[in-house]
Amino acid sequence: MSMTRKAVLTISANPFITRLVSKYGMKLGASRFVAGENMGDTLLKVKELNNEGLLVTLDLLGESVHTREEALVATDGAIRSFDAIQQQGVNSNVSVKLTQLGLDIDPYFCLDNMDRIVAKAKETGNFVRIDMEDSPRIDATMDIFSTLLEKYGRDHIGLVIQSYLYRSDKDVEQLGTHNVNLRIVKGAYKEPKEVAYPEKKDVDEAYRRLVASHLRNGCYTAIATHDIAIIQWAKTFVKENNISTDLFEFQMLYGIATSLQLDLAREGYKVRVYTPYGKDWYPYFSRRIAERPANALFILKSLFRK
């Protein structure tokens, strides 16, 4: 982690900064990265994205929970989002993290919560994707996913795979035998060199390898990256291998590389925007600032104008 990023995360943890940004942040700049604090405001943003030709996946923000009550609140929130999507007629699916649904409390409790969410996805003709978290939680995540995949089938549930992990080649190969819908990401957690590639070039090479393998197997692949070089590689790869645009999509974060998202959509590619929302937006927002500290200047200027 760079010194600049460490400094930003340290400052963001300051109680005064937390109170200040939590009070004014959505008006002064956090809305660049977070679609809204409530479902009504968020769906207005989803409609705007849809009107621009972009697809969406909604992510109800919230860090790892510590009680069953918190996990049930998060579960109910995900379930309600499917009803809201259906009622408003927008084009969006849903992404969830298992730690928010009680994975660290009790995996069986988490499975029950996730089962309710997938059941709602099936009921509404929609789709939910389980985000992958840090390496100690991968096996439990894979177990829950496999159980639900067998029960509900691949049309309503998908998974994320991180290219910086050594194990991902075997995971993609195994998941490919079940024609699983996968989102491929590079990975953002701090992992030891015993389990993850420490060098970016190796992570990038693994990323291309995983995408190519899954597409060659005829499996739907979400290419989740803002890396221009990898996007250009993917465009060349699918063209040279006669891979239909119905078999893949590009995915990017809400508020990041917006012009690139629109350009790809205009070129005829499917582009899905990972769109966070909810009242617990501050930790997510802090990480976006840490990734690109220049964003902090925009917030500070807004505060002083206030």
From TrEMBL:
Ranges of residues in domain Proline dehydrogenase: 45-298
Classification via Gene3D superfamilies: 3.20.20.220
Alphabetical list of InterPro entries matching this protein: FAD-linked_oxidoreductase-like, PRODH_bac_arc, Proline_DH_dom, Proline_oxidase
Molecular function as annotated in GO: nucleotide binding; proline dehydrogenase activity
Cofactor(s) essential for the protein: FAD
UniProt KW keywords: FAD, Flavoprotein, Nucleotide-binding, Oxidoreductase, Proline metabolism
Gene Ontology biological process: L-proline catabolic process to L-glutamate
Catalysed reaction, written as an equation: L-proline + a quinone = (S)-1-pyrroline-5-carboxylate + a quinol + H(+)
Cofactor binding annotation: Binds 1 FAD per subunit.
Binding site for FAD: 132, 162, 186-188, 200, 225-226
Entry EC no(s): 1.5.5.2
Binding site for substrate: 97, 287-288
SUPFAM superfamilies, per database record: FAD-linked oxidoreductase
Official protein name in the record: proline dehydrogenase
Species in which this protein is naturally found: Marininema halotolerans
Taxonomy of the source species: Bacteria, Bacillati, Bacillota, Bacilli, Bacillales
